[in-house]
């Protein structure tokens, strides 16, 4: 097979094998039915073609047995494929426990990525082979879609929401990264590369680059610069709730409802603070819309997450709800 | 030809432009539609050709990116809203349904004329936007790109689609009332031709679904003009809500296109194999099953859009279910051929083409309903190939087959048979060469709506563009000989194909009042075993 004329995509991830196996099975099944129909059509067309002095056609009106048979066999096959496809989909949407997280912000027309260590990239994503990588996706403007064909992975990046996907590269290489959701003029220019590297090479790459501040630390600096600390600290009295063990915990709202303080809730609380106010506090927090961009919000969330983790115990365990079966959490309407 | 004064028919009953623009004869209105729809098809085809031209090379070197985006958008909007959705019902349905049920006209003739005017006004608004610079959102208008970011002309296009939507609703309403109230004596529900059943199911979807797209488009226009924030997250709206609204109509819209096509195929296969359609009542019932289930699967367009895994499961399983009645129809059509007397004239060749292409489209549809596969191929050329197999391979093949089949009835002239067969062959070959490579390039990962792409995708794109030029020729040939045949074609008899059905029991072309005397029906729809097999060559034009 010539490299300028590939007929099957490379398998760069563990998922790719699984998806391909399912795909090839359905192709074979489709081929079987397409061949069956074509052979019958051709045989009937030849055998029963009209001839001079033709016999009258047989008066066959139907057969309930046949109807039941050819509805139920495809039905059973369809259900088998459905269940298999659903199982694969579940695995595509459930990252394992020990993942490395990369934050991804789509923006017309580039992918902005940031590793927890603080290293930033544009349209390039470096990942180690053999480690599960979890992506937190959002968008600064329109809907984009993060697509790496070699990994058989795709997830929309939506403005105002966090979505998640994950993959584990199985062999080093450079793989296409596309935007798959039409996003305007340079949609087809919003492409880049995923560079899967041996773990040592990745570590070397990660520690390289210009002086980096880890995301949590950058978040802390932002937390102070934006003045969050004036209300959300022990010194501030009771103006705002303490944020120490906040991330992943369950909080009670003024309305009596409860909510999990996940990334989506925190983002909402920063941009639309009056939407869901914690019980016992007044809705006095100003909005930070326009003062902090999507990447900044992600850094703030990373900082709050690190504070919760340093508290240990329940809060740290609750960080994992990241494993929610849903590929994305909705940001509720404020 | 019983009783009609020789030489008097709907075409020469009145002359002059007024007699056409103010006509309330369903047959003349069908011809008005035929003219508008053909123009829109040619326009959409020109955009398709330009899109394929750009994709000949990996670099975006023929047009600017914005121009390309506007071209694929107009290709989609024009083809979907102004050709595929109205095509078969407005032209063939309008012409045939009153005759098939033995009526003089549709239930509301003036409403029918209004439908054509609404369609035309809608088309004018949409075309007007091309003149003032075009629109670049894709035919899906996803927010917040369409509501808050694009600077192109959303509002005129939205208005055009909104207005033409009323045309569809009124047509559907007219069909339902006609089928319920105006059937000839003796024409019971289970004696109706399957073409009528298919249009009945079509009308149900149109009436229930079209208001949803109309409301969605109004919301989009309001959001764009007044920044109300239904879909804009910056204003607290939900960007995915639009997709739910949009696909709640636009997925059933696929069945709006394909159900009438299935009706055409049933008629052609019965006639040219001289058999009753195998399992008539199952085929009729499956139309209704498709219409109803078709409303429950819209979420399969959104498996990677942050929809919950559980919603994904429901939409996936329902999508598999809706495929079953379609599969049943394919099996039924195939079995109809068994021990028939099969004649390979142009309409039948198109029907064979339909069966092949629709089968491929349907089977790849099942792959897309499979969650694990859809994540990879969603928004790639695999999708583009799939829906062209269904919508073009299915609907257009049936439309062309039906147009040939009823051409003698519509115009009173035969089309040239040799050219007809040639066109069916060229269309089939051109179609497969155009769209089959797209399945491969899609699985390789080429996203749709790209005007420039990585070089390894080029060979398959060149094949596709080559196929498109063959397909274009395949469409131009009928256009030329159909126009030619209107003047020079051999005169057609009342029933040149020896078909059953009330429409063949009147002269070609029919008189304005369709039937000299109101027909009385005493038999089922496809009593081919009661009439002799026409000899070969009798009707070869």
Textual characterization of the structure:
- With 334 residues, chain A is α+β, with helices and mostly antiparallel strands.
- Chain A has helices at residues 14-47, 64-93, 199-207, 215-225, 263-271, 294-311, 313-317, and strands at 100-107, 110-114, 120-122, 124-128, 132-139, 144-148, 153-157, 162-168, 173-179, 192-197, 250-252, 258-260, 328-329.
- Chain A contains 7 helices and 13 strands.
- In chain A, the strands form 3 sheets. A 6-stranded mixed sheet of chain A has the order 3-2-1-5-8-13, covered by helices on one side. A 5-stranded mixed sheet of chain A has the order 4-10-9-6-7, with helices on one face. In chain A, strands 11-12 form a two-stranded antiparallel sheet.
- Chain B is an all-alpha fold.
- Chain B is built from 16 helices and no strands.
- Chain B has helices at 17-21, 26-54, 65-84, 87-100, 109-131, 145-149, 154-181, 194-226, 241-273, 280-293, 309-337, 346-369, 371-377, 381-411, 417-444, 458-488.
- In chain B, α8 (194-226) packs antiparallel against α9 (241-273), α9 packs across α14 (381-411) and α14 packs antiparallel against α15.
- Chain B starts with 16 loop residues before the first helix and ends in a 53-residue tail after the last helix.
Question: Short description, anyone?
Answer:
The complex is a heterodimer of chains A (334) and B (541). Chain A is of the alpha+beta class and 334 residues long.
Describe how the helices and strands are arranged:
The complex is a heterodimer of chains A (334) and B (541).
Chain A: H1 14-47, H2 64-93, E1 100-107, E2 110-114, E3 120-122, E4 124-128, E5 132-139, E6 144-148, E7 153-157, E8 162-168, E9 173-179, E10 192-197, H3 199-207, H4 215-225, E11 250-252, E12 258-260, H5 263-271, H6 294-311, H7 313-317, E13 328-329
Parallel strand pairs in A: 1-5, 4-10
Antiparallel strand pairs in A: 1-2, 2-3, 5-8, 6-7, 6-9, 8-13, 9-10, 11-12
Chain B: H1 17-21, H2 26-54, H3 65-84, H4 87-100, H5 109-131, H6 145-149, H7 154-181, H8 194-226, H9 241-273, H10 280-293, H11 309-337, H12 346-369, H13 371-377, H14 381-411, H15 417-444, H16 458-488
